[in-house]
């Protein structure tokens, strides 16, 4: 039975680095061969679920650690050998009838490398068997030696070490290794790769001081780990934890930054590595083998599935519930269960789900929460739940974190202290009198990712929506426009008018992608050479064609022919375009194009009759196009790429029913959006939004799944596209141009920097605060501000930060929250807030969502209804444990 897990767990634990940074795999990948590295990755993706198999692997690794074995073969010879063996083309087989010297030289080097590998492996394995005949690797060594001693390989070992190998022998061995007994060689290399992995992991265990865990039978349901720490952190604080059937659920609490997420990741990594039979970062560890493990630490929402953050959490719990209901024995981690909903629903959901988990004594659960009040109820209801917290002590008014597990439930609340220590409110309240305006609209990486703006191949990206272009150069121009949004009304409106002109005229790009690519390839050979040099080059190609059937001249002729076709097509296209109504907006570019295409030097070429040109015509054309006028051709291509973008974006606008926003000066402080929606949701519900200087802060509430995140993303994307001069998914839009846009929608923790989720939120708020302190005028979107902390801190922090932001009347702020009580306090403190909510309508006991903005603050709380509708508790209880 295979061990079950999923991508979310792999990502949560950073088993494989998502962006080239350090990972757990990276720690252990000290292999000498590429095959070993590949095998190690396969092992990492396939944890074991049988205690005997785990302990057998542990015994092998411990043997190599204790024996201090060094990899006996030269790793650099394997790449050559692997490349050689991968060539199974029968046409490359050497023959006594004859062969090329290049093929023979390659085969000689590769055959020699393989012979050295085989002989070295045989000597090493023989030494192991002679050393101790009961070591853990004994069985594998015997099996590998049996393959090496096979009759088929005898000739190679007989000739090894006898000096230079004859050409006849090379032919014979090439046939043996690559064709007759290739499968045998691959099996032997498999043992080599396993040996490489075993020795490498044993070395890592010694170098880092890791220990090997002991796997217990599945039904014992125990975990004992002493001195546990995170393998990617230096100077990490170790912790100890024991779990058993009488205490198989850990209710974990602690203040922000106390170390909950880090501890849970440390525990999850150790359990994952233990199921691989690998060493772990701990002093001692025993564990019962599980059928699988699931973690939920950095869980994003999923707009394409219509899933809010809370619903994503519900679906995640349901996925675990299905496996538990099927009788699976799991190790489960949930970090801050149901943090994506309001306090009441989080409280009820946490109690309901954890009580259901308590009925599964054959699985292990570690669940952290900021809903400390739930712990008091669960203490009375669940006798098999253990309560641990990570304490904080105050020293000179600052929180100090011990990172050491302590029995009980925390009462630490230091959220506002952290905010004040980061000077967030101070930065917001102390603006510089003179600002330094940026060249383009500012938008950082978090905002780009939140709004899913970039990425040619990224699913549902906004760039992908608009990339309906015909040229690679056009795609680069489009990328540049996305990377550098504009921030002056004149430039924005001018670009919008260009797109609108091409949309109104229904212009079609006159050539296809392959034609432009052929022209680009042809022009790439130009270098501004003199006529005599060009002529000699063409004549040389003609000479090689006649004598050697060389294709260079034909390629030159084809490239030139397509280039002339493209030039003729654009000459006719621009001639027709020049007569269109409204051409004035494109007149500057049109004049540059026509100046090139009407150059007297080109007319003979463009007006020539169809047919194959003579050799002299070919030379003259090549000289003019690729050399004398190469700068003109490059300028023309640039204009063609820009045209490609204008035509492509106009076509998307027409197809999607998008409109062009009107850009206004920043000091007008106006955002007027009518009928806007998310551009990636063709059937998305539209909304209206109107913000001004006197009402520049939107306080947004709504139940889970009501559409808050989608609405904020829709607005953010529209604002970003409008600053590019691009069409937006709306019926009408007018907006004041600003210096930047910042969003905080899917903010994750950052273990490498030591950030908890709450601290990541604080630092995100600080980033915006710094921009405000620079007197920049902004669009700011905060989804569920401070959801990564306890209720009191979330209330205090949300109130303080929104009040501070609201004092800035030159920026627009949209803030959503589940702490609806904050709205009442803000209504009394600020006169420039607009209160809107996305309602929930109950129909036959089921929540439905109109996704339409309404005035006021929501009173909807349907979190428990969603949990009940998904039948999670019933699924968990559906089946009894199956041994």
From TrEMBL:
GO terms (BP aspect): mismatch repair
GO molecular function: ATP binding; ATP-dependent DNA damage sensor activity; mismatched DNA binding
Every DNA mismatch repair proteins mutS family domain range: 247-433, 695-883
Protein's UniProt keywords contain Nuclease: no
SUPFAM superfamilies for the chain: DNA repair protein MutS, domain III, P-loop containing nucleoside triphosphate hydrolases
Family matches, as InterPro entries: DNA_mismatch_repair_MutS_C, DNA_mismatch_repair_MutS_core, DNA_mismatch_repair_MutS_sf, MutS, P-loop_NTPase
Superkingdom of origin organism: Bacteria
Gene3D superfamilies attached to this UniProt entry: 1.10.1420.10, P-loop containing nucleotide triphosphate hydrolases
Record's keyword annotation contains RNA-binding: no
A Pfam family this chain is assigned to: MutS_III
Record keywords: ATP-binding, DNA-binding, Nucleotide-binding
Annotated GO CC locations: cytosol
Protein name in the entry: DNA mismatch repair ATPase MutS
């Amino acid at each position: 039975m295979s061990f079950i897990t999923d991508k979310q767990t792999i990502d949560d634990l950073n088993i494989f680095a998502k962006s080239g940074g350090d990972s757990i795999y990276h720690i252990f990948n000290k292999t000498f061969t590429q095959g070993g590295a590949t095998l190690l990755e396969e092992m990492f993706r396939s944890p074991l679920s049988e205690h005997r198999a785990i302990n057998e692997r542990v015994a092998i690794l411990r043997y190599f650690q204790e024996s201090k074995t060094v990899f006996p073969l030269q790793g650099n010879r394997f790449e050559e050998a692997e490349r050689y063996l991968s060539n199974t083309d029968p046409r490359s087989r050497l023959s006594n009838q004859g062969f090329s010297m290049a093929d023979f030289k390659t085969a000689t080097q590769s055959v020699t490398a393989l012979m050295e590998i085989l002989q070295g492996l045989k000597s090493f394995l023989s030494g192991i068997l002679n050393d101790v005949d009961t070591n853990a690797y004994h069985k594998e060594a015997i099996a590998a030696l049996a393959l090496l001693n096979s009759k088929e390989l005898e000739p190679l070992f007989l000739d090894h070490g006898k000096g230079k190998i004859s050409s006849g022998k090379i032919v014979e061995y090439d046939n043996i290794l690559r064709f007759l007994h290739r499968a045998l060689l691959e099996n032997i290399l498999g043992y080599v790769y396993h040996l490489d992995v075993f020795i490498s992991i044993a070395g890592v265990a010694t170098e880092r001081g890791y220990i090997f865990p002991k796997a217990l039978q599945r039904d014992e349901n125990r975990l004992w780990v002493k001195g546990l720490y995170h393998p990617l952190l230096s100077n990490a604080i170790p912790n100890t934890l024991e779990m058993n059937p009488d205490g198989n659920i850990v209710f974990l609490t602690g203040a922000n930054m106390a170390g909950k997420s880090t501890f849970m990741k440390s525990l999850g990594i150790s359990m994952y590595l233990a199921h691989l039979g690998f060493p772990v970062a701990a002093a001692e560890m025993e564990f019962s083998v599980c059928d699988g493990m699931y973690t939920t630490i950095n869980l994003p929402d999923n707009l394409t599935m219509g899933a809010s953050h809370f619903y994503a959490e519900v679906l995640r719990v349901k996925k675990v519930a299905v496996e538990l209901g099927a009788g699976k024995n799991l190790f489960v981690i949930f970090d801050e269960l149901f943090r994506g909903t309001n306090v009441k629903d989080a409280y009820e959901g946490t109690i309901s789900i954890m009580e259901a988990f308590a009925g599964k004594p054959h699985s292990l659960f570690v669940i952290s929460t900021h809903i400390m009040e739930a712990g008091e109820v669960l203490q009375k209801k669940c006798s098999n739940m253990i309560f641990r917290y990570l304490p904080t002590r105050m020293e000179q008014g600052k929180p100090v974190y011990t990172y050491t597990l302590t029995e009980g439930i925390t009462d630490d609340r230091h959220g506002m202290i952290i905010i004040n220590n980061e000077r967030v409110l101070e930065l917001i309240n102390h603006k510089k009198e003179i600002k330094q305006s940026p060249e383009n609209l500012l938008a950082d990486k978090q905002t780009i990712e939140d709004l899913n703006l970039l990425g040619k191949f990224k699913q549902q990206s906004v760039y992908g929506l608009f990339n309906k272009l015909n040229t690679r150069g056009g795609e680069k121009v489009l990328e540049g426009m996305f990377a550098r949004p504009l921030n002056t009304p004149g430039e924005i409106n001018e670009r919008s008018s260009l797109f609108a002109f091409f949309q109104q005229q229904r212009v079609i790009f006159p050539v296809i992608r392959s034609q432009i690519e052929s022209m680009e390839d042809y022009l790439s050979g130009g270098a501004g050479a003199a006529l005599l040099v060009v002529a000699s080059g063409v004549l040389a190609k003609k000479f090689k064609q006649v004598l050697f059937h060389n294709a260079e001249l034909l390629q030159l002729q084809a490239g030139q022919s397509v280039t002339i076709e493209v030039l003729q097509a654009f000459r006719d296209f621009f001639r027709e375009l020049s007569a269109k109504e409204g051409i004035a907006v494109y007149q500057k570019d049109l004049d540059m194009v026509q100046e090139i295409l009407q150059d007297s030097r080109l007319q003979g070429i463009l007006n020539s009759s169809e047919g194959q040109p003579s050799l002299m015509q070919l030379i003259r054309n090549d000289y003019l196009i690729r050399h004398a006028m190469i700068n003109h051709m490059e300028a023309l291509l640039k204009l063609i790429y820009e045209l490609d973008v204008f035509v492509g974006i106009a076509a998307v606008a027409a197809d999607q029913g998008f409109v062009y926003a009107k850009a206004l000066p920043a000091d007008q402080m106006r955002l007027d959006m009518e009928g806007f929606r998310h551009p990636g949701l063709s059937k998305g519900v539209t909304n209206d939004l109107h913000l001004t200087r006197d009402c520049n802060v939107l306080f947004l509430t709504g139940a889970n799944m009501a559409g808050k995140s989608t609405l904020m993303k829709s607005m953010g994307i529209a604002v970003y596209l409008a600053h590019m001069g691009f069409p937006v998914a709306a019926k009408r839009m007018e907006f004041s141009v600003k210096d930047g846009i910042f969003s905080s929608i899917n903010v994750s923790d950052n273990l490498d920097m030591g950030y908890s989720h709450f601290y990541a939120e604080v630092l995100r708020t600080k980033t915006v605060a710094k921009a405000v302190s620079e007197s920049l005028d902004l669009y700011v979107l905060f989804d569920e501000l401070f959801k990564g902390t306890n209720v009191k801190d979330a209330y205090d922090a949300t109130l303080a930060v929104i009040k501070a932001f609201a004092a800035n009347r030159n920026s627009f702020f949209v803030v959503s929250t589940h702490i609806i009580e904050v709205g009442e306090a803000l209504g009394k403190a600020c006169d420039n807030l607009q209160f809107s909510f996305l309602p929930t309508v109950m129909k036959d006991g089921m929540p439905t969502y109109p996704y339409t903005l309404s005035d006021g603050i929501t009173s909807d709380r349907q979190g428990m209804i969603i949990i009940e509708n998904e039948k999670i508790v019933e699924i968990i209880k559906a089946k009894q444990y199956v041994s």
